[in-house]
Amino acid sequence: MSFTFNGMPTMARQGDSVAAALLAAGYGSTRRSPVSGAARGPYCMMGVCFECLVKIDGRPNQQGCMTNVAEGMRIETQEGAAMPREEG
């Protein structure tokens, strides 16, 4: 199945998590630290560490290791800590 990462067409296997698909495609960094700006990437792969946060289809703070890739998904690097939008 196909998806994009930072606008680049990328392929995944059915059932892959976003984090696993990105690692398999050679992408080691999925976000930047809000403190130092250092590159961060998937670490625990089981939803505990939050190092794999990405923006998926415009929604920030999504755990890549806990989300399966879907056809046409738009995944982007998350820069720092994304603040929730205020409704109203």
Describe the structure.
The protein is 8% helix and 31% strand. It has 88 residues and is mainly beta. The protein has a single domain, classed as Roll (Ubiquitin-like (UB roll)). Strands 1, 2, 3, 4, 5, 6 and 7 form a seven-stranded mixed β-sheet that branches. The longest helix has 7 residues, at 18-24. The radius of gyration is 12 Å and the shape is globular.
Which helices and strands occur, and which strands form pairs?
Elements: E1 2-5, E2 8-11, H1 18-24, E3 31-32, E4 39-40, E5 53-56, E6 59-63, E7 74-79
Parallel strand pairs: 1-7, 3-7
Antiparallel strand pairs: 1-2, 3-4, 5-6, 5-7
What structural keywords apply?
88 residues, mainly beta, Ubiquitin-like (UB roll), 7-stranded mixed β-sheet, 1 helix, globular
Name of the level-1 CATH class? Alpha Beta
Overall geometry comes to globular
Q: From the alpha carbons, calculate the radius of gyration and give it in angstroms.
A: 12 Å
Query: Helical stretch count?
Result: 1
Protein name: 2Fe-2S ferredoxin-like protein
Pfam families: Fer2_4
InterPro entries: 2Fe-2S-bd_N, 2Fe-2S_ferredoxin-like_sf
Keywords: Oxidoreductase, Plasmid
Concise structural overview:
With 88 residues, the chain is mostly beta strands. Helices cover 8% and strands 31% of the residues. The longest helix is centred in the N-terminal third of the chain and has 7 residues, at 18-24.
